[in-house]
Each structure stands twice: as C-alpha cells, then as structure tokens.
Write a structure and sequence with these properties.
The complex is a heterodimer of chains A (286) and B (219).
Chain A lengths: L9 E9 L5 E10 L4 E6 L5 H6 L9 E6 L2 E2 L5 H7 E4 L12 H9 L6 H14 L15 H13 L5 E5 L7 H16 L3 E5 L3 H7 L2 E6 L2 E7 H4 L3 H6 L6 H11 L11 H18 L1
Parallel strand pairs in A: 3-8, 3-9, 6-7, 7-8
Antiparallel strand pairs in A: 1-2, 1-4, 4-5, 9-10
Chain B lengths: L16 H4 L2 H17 L3 H17 L3 H10 L1 H14 L2 H24 L2 H10 L4 H29 L10 H6 L2 H24 L19
Classes of the chains: A alpha/beta (286), B mainly alpha (219).
The structure holds adenosine-5'-diphosphate and magnesium ion.
Chain lengths: 286, 219
C-alpha cells in the first residue's frame, strides 16, 4: 500500500468495545480504509465482524479509541448524520422491510434527505430500474422471494448514495445468479468511487473479487493484507476455521504427487498456463 | 437510542440468594405481587407494596438492570399520566403508575433471576402436563431472542435514516411501525420454523429431557 499522501476515508485508532453484559467484542482494532478500496472481513462466527461494522455509523460507540471518517472524529455525530455517509446492509432483509409496497420501501429510505416529491419519485424509479424491481413496484415487500427481498434491502441503502458501503454476509443463501448480480453491483459502485467493505464466509468469492482481506478472531484483527496472500496461508486459515481456496487445495495435491514446481500458482489462469505448458512439453517429447 | 432496557428481562448468571431460590417460589412471588397490585387503587398501599420490592432487588444485585427497565417504561408512564389525569384524576394516575411499576418490577425480578432451563424443570416437577410446561418454557426461552431481534431491527432502520425521537403523540405512534412490523413478521416466521421443527420430532418424548435434575438440591 503506497498511498502515503492520500488520507484514508476511514481511520480506526485503537478501538475496543464491550457489550453491556460484559462481552468484549472488539479489542485494540487499528485500520485504514482508502477511497475506492474493496475490502473483505472474514472470521469465525462471534469473531466480532458485525460489532466492528456497527461502530462505523455509530450504532455502537467504542468503549475506547477513536474513529475518523473523512478526517473527522465521529464520536459526537448522530447515527442519522453518519448513516448518510456509511450505508450498512445487514444480513436479514426482514429486519427492515415493513412498507405496503416496494416503491414505498425505497421512499422511506429517502425521507430524511428533505428532497422534493418529484426528486424522490425520480430517484425511486431510477433505483428500481437499476435493481430490476420495477415489475414488483406495487407488490408488498413481504411477498418477495428471499433473493429479491435482499435486493430490495440493498436498494433501500444504495438509493441513499453513501460514500462507504458495508455489507454483512451478502452472498449467504444467494443462488449463482443473485451472486452474479451482486458482483456486478459492487463493480459499478466501485466505478463511482465508493469504498466497499464486505463481511463474508465465502472463500472463493473473496479470493476472486476482493483485493484485500482482514481476518478477525476473538475481537481482534489477526491479519490484514492482500487476499491472495492471506487466504493461501494454511496456518491462518486453520486458526479461523476457513478452508483454503480450491486453487490452493489443487496445488497442494499436485505437490504431494511430485509436481513441486506448482508452488506459486495463485490464479486459475496461472494454473491453466502451467498445465498447457506441461502438455506441450510432454507432447514434444513423444 | 437503544433498546437496552429489554436487557431488563434477560437472565444473567449471578451469585445471590435470589438467584439460588427455587423458580417456583419466584413465580409465586411475582404472581402474588401482581395480584396485590391489582387489589388496590389508592396511592398509599400501592406505594408501600412498591417500596417493599426494593430490598429484594438489592439482594438480587439487580438494581442497574431494574433502573433500565423502569427508564424504558417512561413513554408508557407519560401516556398513563396524561390519559388518567384527563379522564380520572391525578392521584388515580399516580396510583396506576405504581401499579405498573410493581407488576413490571415483580416480573423483571423473575425473568432476571430464573434460568430458562430451570424453569421448565420446575414446571414439570409441579406436575404440570409436559406439553404446557414445554410451550411455556419455550415462550420464556424466546424472550432474550426477541430482545436481540428488536435491537437488530432498530439498527437496520437507523442505518437508513430512521429516527426514534419524533414530536407529537400521533407521530410517535406512527413512528413505531418500522420497528413493530418487522418484529411481528420475524416472530411469526420463527414460530412457524419452531412448529415445523417440533412436528418433525413428534411424538414428544417425555422421558429424555429433564428427569435426573433435582431442584431442591440447589437451594
Ligand atoms: N447485543 C449483544 N449483546 C451482547 N453480546 C453480543 C451482542 N451482539 C454480539 N454479541 C457478542 O459479541 C461477540 C461478537 O459478535 P459479532 O460481532 O456478532 O460476531 P460476528 O459478526 O463475527 O459473528 C460474540 O461473542 C457475541 O456473542
Ligand atoms: Mg455477524
């Protein structure tokens, strides 16, 4: 990370948090997120991932330490103010859907911006179009399928256009097509310069799409670095009950069977090139 | 704003005489306090009943959580004062507040000091039919779950600009919908899930769950 001059969008300095019942959910957390970064947070259940993102918009306030967003200390800012900058999409869409129709659900999210009626309508139409939800416009949000309700919950945050987007386990229970939609969504949000933070248990997803990964255990950060390095580290993976990416598992099996030169293959493309060379080499021998 | 006051009904392991007592005794205690609160409509007797609860709360080391639960009731208390003063009298309004405080405190003491698992045990040892004991303790078991869910719903709504504080009574009531509707929907969903899970293990086996644990040993 050679971004010495540029200040991070989010700076977390030595924070910790204990719930009122005494559970110490976060300990000595230090982090920097830069503008436009795409970051994964991984770790066992109960590691403190959700607690960490709850601190970003003030839902919980650190017991000690400070968080700066856009270089401003957030401790005295209200949740309402912070939620305009940091949009958090939680795991369960049914924790927020309550309106009579899909359209009103979006409008509820836009209420706090003091926009005119026409502008609200315009933004609503735009977001429904972007999320392919136009056809459900007048339907009750409670009659949507699991994937569509998740889409609607996501749309109801993205319509607020926050500069930092945080997802709590977005790929959980999604089918391949829904995951593809999600991948396209983060790509297009990233083009707009958004900083995106994603909590996930999905190793293949993280390996393929997230450049940087933070591993958490017991309320602490145990490693923070390039995903390809972090997720290929057997020792770290064991500690956090994850599994190695398939490409790494394949490499290890090849190594055990005498293919020692496969050591550094990290991506599918590198593997294909290697195999292609091997085949060429062999056939030239015959 | 948080729904921390719901913690006032969450069991927490602590060491006190009150925690060690038989759950049945505590249930009886809460019921007696509730009935006696309903028997009186004057300030003086209700006040003394209320005061008599305080030493028990202190013995149980429950003061902090109890204060939180009372604070959480402040909206309801204002509501009761306004309605009762308008339609009855101020003294009646104050008496009614003591009545609510007694009932909430008595049950808060019960919920705070009884482990959900012990509660099922004690009902069965009272020869209450297994099905009733089971559903009752199941409902009891879900109190903390629903409290957590309520907090998660509040978090999700606040993350899209929802604010709890609103001016005016009508607005305040309207403002509860974004919280109550998801809470009800999620509770119904969970009820269906639990029912499905239970149906799949029918018939209920009366012998396996609780038979070797004697409550009396713990006193
Ligand atoms: N509202 C709460 N009250 C008390 N403890 C909590 C609460 N929410 C989470 N915890 C505890 O904090 C720890 C971290 O939880 P969480 O941040 O949800 O982990 P993760 O999202 O990584 O699964 C866990 O031990 C959990 O039991
Ligand atoms: Mg979580």
């Amino acid at each position: 990370m050679q971004r010495v001059k540029e200040l991070p969008v989010v700076m977390i300095r030595e924070i910790g948090y204990s719930y009122p019942n005494g559970t110490e959910a976060l300990k000595n957390i230090n982090l920097n997120f830069f503008k436009g970064e795409l970051i994964g947070i991984m770790g066992k259940n109960g590691a403190g991932k959700t607690s960490l993102i709850r601190t970003f918009n003030g839902l919980i306030r650190p017991t000690y330490g400070t968080i700066y967003i856009d270089n401003e200390n957030i401790s005295s800012k209200s949740i309402a103010t912070l939620s305009k900058k940091v949009g958090i999409i939680f795991q369960n869409p049914f924790h927020q859907l309550f309106s009579n129709s899909v359209e009103e659900e979006i409008k509820f999210s836009l209420k706090s911006f003091n926009l005119g009626k026409e502008e609200i309508q315009f933004k609503t139409d735009q977001i429904l179009h972007e999320f392919n939800l136009e056809k459900y416009r007048n339907r009750s949000p409670l009659n949507l399928s699991g994937g569509e309700s998740k889409k609607l919950a996501t749309a109801s945050i993205i319509c607020r256009d926050p500069e930092i987007l945080v997802f709590d386990e977005p790929t959980l229970g999604q089918d391949a097509k829904e995951i593809e939609f999600f991948i396209n969504l983060i790509k297009s949000e990233r083009k707009k310069g958004k900083t995106i933070i994603i909590i996930t248990h999905n190793v293949e997803f993280a390996y393929k799409y997230l450049p940087r990964t933070i591993l958490m255990a017991d309320g602490q950060i145990i490693v923070d670095g390039p995903t390809k390095k972090v997720l290929n580290n057997e020792f770290l993976i064991k500690q956090t009950s994850l599994i190695l990416p398939q490409i790494r598992q394949f490499t290890l099996v090849l190594q055990q069977n005498g293919f020692h030169e496969v050591e550094d293959l990290l991506t599918t493309n590198e593997m294909i090139d290697y195999l292609r060379n091997l085949i060429k080499h062999k056939s030239s021998h015959i | 704003m948080s729904l921390e006051f719901l913690n006032a009904f969450k069991f927490m392991k602590k060491k006190s005489i009150l925690h060690k007592m038989d759950p049945r005794a505590k249930l009886l205690f809460s019921i007696i306090y509730t009935i006696s609160a309903l028997l009186y409509t004057k300030i003086i007797p209700l006040f003394f009943i209320f005061i008599s609860l305080i030493p028990i709360i202190l013995i149980g080391k429950l003061f902090k959580q109890w204060i939180k639960s009372i604070r959480g009731l402040s909206f309801l208390i204002v509501f009761i004062i306004i309605l009762n003063t308008l339609f009855m009298s101020l003294s009646f309004a104050i008496a009614m507040i003591f009545r609510i405080l007694i009932m909430v405190s008595a049950f808060s003491i019960f919920f705070l000091t009884v482990d959900p698992n012990d509660f099922a045990l004690s009902l069965i040892s009272m020869k209450i039919p297994y099905e009733f004991a089971f559903s009752f303790s199941l409902a009891f078991r879900f109190v903390p779950t629903i409290a957590t869910e309520a907090q998660n719903i509040l978090d999700a709504q606040q993350s899209r600009g929802y604010e709890m504080q609103k001016k005016g009574l009508i607005n305040q009531i309207k403002n509860l919908f974004p919280l109550l509707i998801p809470l009800i929907i999620c509770s119904i969903k969970r009820a269906f899930n639990v029912a499905e899970a239970l149906e799949s293990i029918q018939p209920l086996d009366h012998s396996i769950v609780y038979h070797s644990h004697s409550l009396l040993l713990r006193i």
